[in-house]
Amino acid sequence: MEEVRIDKWMWAVRIFKTRSIATDACKKNRVMINNTAAKPSRTIKVGDVISVKKPPITYSFKVLQLSQNRMGAKLVKDFMENITPPDQYEILEMQKISGFVDRAKGLGRPTKKDRRELEQFSDDMPQDFEFFDWDEEW
Fold first, then answer.
1. Do 38 and 61 meet the contact criterion of CB atoms below 8 Å apart?
2. What separation in angstroms does the CA of 130 have from each of 39, 89, 117, 125, 135?
3. pTM for the model
4. How confident is the chain (138 residues) per 10-residue block, as mean pLDDT?
């Protein structure tokens, strides 16, 4: 086996949960092979570098072996090497820290924890604090 389809390989090494999700990622130009956009049917070989955009970061993997069959998580390290730069993981950590403050539109209602944090924040403000003085002349 010298070449394998990129969508099958990404599913086999557990980058994506299903092959159809891997295929969709390729179609949406979120997968690059050696800095070239990859279609789902594109074949890969040992030594290729695959970049996968999973917002907010881009993961990079080096192909060590090929497989078309899904494998256990413990075997994945024999088939790929994670070469994602550390600065990408810093972006991910900052995203986690920012929490509900940078809540994107459409992510649904705030959780109970978010509500409590907002109430705590507003309770800490002085009672006579006003954001805008409506009586002030321009």
1. no
2. 55, 39, 20, 10, 12
3. 0.68
4. 88 94 94 94 94 90 94 93 90 72 67 83 64 56
